[in-house]
Amino acid sequence: MSYLEYHAKSTPTGLRKVLHLNWGLTLLLATVSSVGFLMLYSVAGGSFSPWVEPQVKRFALGLGVMFVVAMIPIWFWRNISVVAYLGSLALLVAVELFGTVGMGAQRWIDIGFMRLQPSEVTKIALVMLLAAYYDWLPAEKTSRPLWVLLPVALILIPTALVLKQPDLGTSILLMAAGGGVMFLAGVHWAYFVAVIAAGVGLVSAVFQSRGTDWQLLKDYQFRRIDTFLDPSQDPLGAGYHITQSKIALGSGGWSGRGFMQGTQSRLNFLPEKHTDFIFTTLAEEFGFIGGVTLLSIYMLIIVFCIASAIAAKDRFSSLVIMGIAITFFLFFAVNMSMVMGLAPVVGVPLPMVSYGGSAMLVLLGAFGIVQSAHIHRPRQASR
Amino acid sequence: MKRNPKDLDAAHGKMTRRALFLGGLQLAFAGGLAARMRYLQVDQADEFRLLAEENRINIRLLPPARGQIFDRNGLIIAQNSPSYRITVVPEDAGDVEAVIAKLSSLVPLDPEDLERARTEMRRSPPFLPITLADQIGWEDISKVAVNAPALPGVTPEVGLTRVYPQLGDFAHVIGYVGPVSDYDLSKMEDPEPVLMIPRFQIGKVGFEAKREDVLRGKAGAKRVEVNATGRVMRELDRREGISGADMQLTIDAELQNYVQARLGRESAAAVVIDCEDGDIRAICSSPSFDPNLFVRGISVADYRMLTEDNYRPLSNKTVQGTYPPGSTFKMITALAALENGVVGPEETVWCPGHLKVAGRRFHCWKRAGHGHVDLNTSLKRSCDVYYYDVAIKTGINKISEMANLFGLGIKHDLPMSAVAQGITPTKEWKSSSYGKDWLIGDTANASIGQGYMLASPLQLAVMSARIATGRSVTPRLLKSLDGVEQPSGAGEPLPVSENSLRMVRRGMYSVSNDRRGTAYRSRIAPKEMEMAGKTGTSQVRNITAAERAAGVIRNEDLPWERRDHALFVCFAPYDKPKYAVAVVVEHGGGGSKAAAPVARDVMLQALYNGTPPLEAYPKADRSRIKAQQERLERERVKRPLGSRSSRA
């Protein structure tokens, strides 16, 4: 019997659960998605097609998924986390075997009504599994080497599969989110220091490997790093994305050019303006104020999650919420850093805003788990 | 597995602390992102805004309309006509080859142009128009326009091109324009951006080149918004260019046309100048060429035809060509002698047919000699010995000085290409040019306009005008620029006594009105229009003593290029000079036969401002003149002067 089960009786049941949803979080998610609709409408030149309409449908679907997931008690999710993890691994292998090649990488499986990106599912499944693992693991064993190595392996298996697609952005996200959950679970900080030191060593090794037979990254990945470090050296070639993105962003100024007035995105100077670089359109049209507002909404979502995680009192809920929050944070932090020229272009979308099905569905599903944890949390009054 | 709730609480507390720590890290990172945003969007906003504008806005030049050129009566000489091009946008055409095939069944397409278009197509983005045919007729354009639905992506476009409706008449005066070449650009220090427009036309020679500064105008510009691939999305604003200034020449196109026709196929030059104000009424070099050939770039075959012609159609003989003035120079020698008191008007010189100068015989053209010759007779009958004699007494430097006073050896400032200075030799000139001393024989040669003496037809016309008026008449070609009248060339009185001038004019009068004058046959009949002139026949070879002994060979028996140049200068009416004319017929033979009739006809045409009545000619000549007038009338009509009626 876990701690959770003592208080299960005090949680709401049936339709009463709806009243106990975290409505603030729901509202924030809807707001962020609406910002996405607005921007997609703008980059399409004032049209609902081709992006806004499918995006709204997906959002509606995702919202449905979120509610269904939220209604299901959190312990169910804990119990199926191993299955979810193994399922996502199977999907990753499947994408390796049958996936569609797009943008130079094998990332999607066509499942009829939409194209599924298994790596998105993996992010959540990994967080769930790790949370369940630490829920199961007695606290005193947390920092024992053997019990540390096991989750590390659990993180590295999907990471390696994703890296093979190749999708550097997602693999970094997986490692960071997994590491985050381990950190929260209470693994001794010395491990993290060691890993960071090793990471620094690895990065220098990667750079050393360039041009040799044992080159660790693909050429295009090296080039992305090069152009990130100095975009001006090739403004029309590989550095084009970053340069144009900074121009669009910077030209927005304090309050922007106004809705639908962004010349850089309108005239196609911006690459991937409806997906990874959508933030530049927002920043160009709504300026610094618009950018900071979106960033604040994102941070509010994070704050809601942390509060929810602390309130949860049961280990699985707290860890899974925090893991999802970290994943979500990494999404927008990496994406924004990328368009602002602070990080290399790694292909991470702006969560809930960028055009794209898998990410939105999976994120809303994940927030469904957060909601579930919130609904089924232990309550003081019934103690 | 049962757990101690205390442990769990401890674990939860640890997680809470770490969650808050992580949350703090995330907030700090978000703060960093906000700071970065602030840096890009607030601190560097201006710079990025500028870069964005550069991205977005493209400046396209609008070529200015070139200034037009009119004659003194407003007849158009150089104009800008719409020129039609056919362009195709490959992207819109779809199957370009199919469209080209369809197009070529409608209008003739040059295979060379098509080949160039295809290479261009491979290089440029598919949304940029490619020129398939240039300079095509209105009819062909209409065909394309009518069949537009069957020709996707094909557009008839209109631009401006230079057209010279007067064809050859003004080829030497205004020259022509042509597409800017790399060579042109290499000569300029800082070429205007407008010159980079492909096939932009600039003045190449003549007036067009000399006044390029004002004719070209200033390019306008339009700012267009382009997308990342360079496609024009919309026009933001446009600043129209400033058209080049319109010019009005002093030339009378009708007269010019007549003179050109009168010179015919001779290799000749004729200049008509207004004695009162120096306006050049006609300035023709023959043979001429069609300047329109050069506008879009002349074909190799045409160019070869022009350059290989012995009669040098491309050279402007009126100002570039310099000739020994021959006897037409005698007025200058006479004036120098009179002004320096070397000889009096009534004083005579004995002409036995030759004069011995420094041991060498200088012959008079009349071997038998002229007997006693005074000034008037010397001019009337063109006695050479008289001039040998007075010139030697006067000295070459004084003669050259006088020549300069009358516009010889002076480079007249006309907006034409390669205006020649000619030569009026002096002792110093010879020693500095040849490193040799001036010989007395050189003076004798110079006195009759031979030897080193060289003058252009323009200079001879100016000389005649100055003799006629006694003023320093300056030739003027540009009447008004952009509506502003240019200074007149009437000139100041010359420092020459009116007496001397009157004597010389009187002599010239005798040349064409005295029964024994050399140009009596080319006189003007009406009393009020009588002409004063002077013939000249200048040798282009030395007549050797042996030749002279065997009898001088008649010009007609010599090959063309060894024949004498025929010259004639004149002014009329004698009482009140209005026009001065100079005619040079290269290798034309004698001045009285080849040049004087042309000059007289030209003079009459100018005086009557059109075809003169037959009464203006001596009775005996009228039937011949009538036939000539009719022939010229036909020849002038034959010229395709469709736009001749388009008076502005």
Keywords, separated by commas or semicolons:
heterodimer, A: 383 residues, mainly alpha, three-stranded antiparallel β-sheet, 67% helix, globular, disordered N terminus, B: 648 residues, alpha+beta, Penicillin-binding protein 2a (Domain 2), Beta-lactamase, 3 domains, seven-stranded mixed β-sheet, 24 helices, elongated, disordered C terminus
How are the SSEs placed, and which strands pair?
The complex is a heterodimer of chains A (383) and B (648).
Chain A: H1 3-6, H2 16-19, H3 23-43, H4 52-71, H5 74-98, E1 100-102, E2 105-110, E3 115-116, H6 118-136, H7 145-163, H8 168-185, H9 189-209, H10 219-229, H11 240-251, H12 263-266, H13 278-312, H14 315-339, H15 357-375
Helix pairs in contact in A: 3-4, 3-13, 4-15, 5-6, 5-7, 6-7, 6-8, 6-14, 6-15, 7-8, 8-14, 11-13, 13-14, 14-15
Chain B: H1 5-43, H2 45-56, E1 57-62, E2 69-70, E3 76-88, H3 90-93, H4 96-106, H5 111-123, E4 130-136, H6 138-146, E5 154-163, H7 171-174, E6 176-179, H8 182-187, E7 201-205, H9 206-210, H10 212-215, E8 220-226, E9 232-239, E10 247-249, H11 253-263, E11 268-274, E12 280-286, H12 292-295, H13 300-307, H14 330-339, E13 349-351, E14 354-357, E15 360-363, E16 371-373, H15 375-380, H16 384-394, H17 396-405, H18 427-434, H19 440-447, H20 457-469, E17 478-481, E18 484-485, H21 498-513, E19 532-538, H22 545-550, E20 565-572, E21 579-585, H23 591-607, H24 622-638
Parallel strand pairs in B: 2-10
Antiparallel strand pairs in B: 1-8, 2-3, 3-4, 3-5, 6-7, 8-9, 10-17, 11-12, 11-21, 13-16, 14-15, 17-18, 19-20, 20-21
Helix pairs in contact in B: 11-23, 14-16, 14-17, 14-21, 16-19
